[in-house]
Design goal:
By secondary structure, this protein is α/β, with parallel strands linked by helices. The chain is built from 11 helices and 10 strands. The structure holds adenosine-5'-triphosphate. It comes from Leucobacter allii.
């Protein structure tokens, strides 16, 4: 772990206009830093702007104002193939639903093969097959899984394929957008363990987007808390989870599911509407 920034977002703003009178400030002057080799969790309720931040950072969405740097490069939205390929080597994204990158009529290995075709022109067909199997082994899957169609795999296994696909580009950063949110708690823990192991082995950095604070302690080093497009609190994972300053952060922590947890509906609604 070190203090060099691998991602630096400065003053990002993004407003969506929904007709003539309605607009939503999804990002309002947001700045944050992901330190190389660490995991920065971005937490907040649904609609607080987390995904928009992730999308702007990887260049899938444009900002109205502000800048993003990944490594030495400034990120701007692009559709140019060469630039997209270069960016893919810097940053990959894993989404909540792995289905999006899988073709239901092809073995799941096809999605990795496609990545390798783009990023490893040095490999021939046999070389790509060997690399596919290596990547499957890295995420705890076997040749049998590689040759299966998506429908034959569980949610956790499909998410492992999505992680292997991201690794195939050999990126420096992976943005995980609610990547474990749809998984059962025990599967969630296994995928988090895998992510931690891969981070060590590959020197990766993670931007970890989640509405669920119960998973944050396990993986994050730093946390930013978003509310209505703004960062309202930031700190180390210990500072945020053990000594939160803002009522909203306290509420998010109180609402995180854990054994014996009871939802505090009245309080929650009151604070969120504030
Ligand atoms: N393409 C879009 N067009 C219009 N409004 C959008 C668009 N994308 C996001 N928004 C709005 O911007 C706000 C922030 O959305 P965003 O998806 O970034 O939040 P989030 O915290 O990731 O929530 P969720 O987890 O539900 O996706 C929301 O009010 C959302 O409706």
């Amino acid at each position: 772990m070190n203090d060099t920034a691998i991602i630096e977002a400065q003053g990002l703003s993004r407003t969506f206009h929904l007709g003539r009178r309605m607009s939503v400030a999804a990002l309002d002057d947001v700045s944050c830093v992901l330190r190389a080799g660490t995991c920065l969790a971005v937490v907040g309720e649904s609609g607080s702007g987390k995904s928009t931040l992730a999308r702007v950072i990887v260049g899938l969405e444009s900002a109205d104002a502000g800048t993003v740097r990944i490594g030495d490069a400034e990120v701007t939205p692009t559709t140019a193939r060469r630039q997209l390929r270069e960016r893919a080597k810097l940053v990959q994204m894993v989404f909540q639903d792995p289905q999006g990158s899988l073709n239901r009529s092809l073995p799941v290995s096809a999605t990795i093969d496609e990545m390798l075709r783009a990023h490893r022109p040095d490999l021939d067909r046999a070389g790509r097959r060997a690399r596919v199997l290596e990547l499957f082994a890295e995420v705890g899957l076997t040749e049998r899984h590689a040759d299966a169609k998506p429908a034959a795999l569980s949610g956790g296994q499909k998410q492992r394929v999505a992680i292997a696909r991201a690794l195939a580009a050999e990126p420096r950063v992976i943005v995980l957008d609610e990547a474990v949110s749809a998984l059962d708690v025990s599967v969630q823990a296994q995928v988090l363990d895998l992510l931690k192991q891969l981070r060590e082995e590959h020197g990766l950095s993670y931007l970890f987007i989640t509405h669920d604070l119960s998973v944050v302690r396990d993986i994050a080093d730093d946390v930013v808390v978003m509310r209505k497009g703004r960062i309202i609190e930031r700190g180390t994972v210990g500072e945020i989870l053990d000594a939160p300053q803002q009522p909203y952060t306290k509420l998010l922590i109180a609402s995180a599911p854990r054994p014996g947890w009871k939802p505090q509906r009245g309080l929650r609604a009151a604070l969120l509407e504030e």
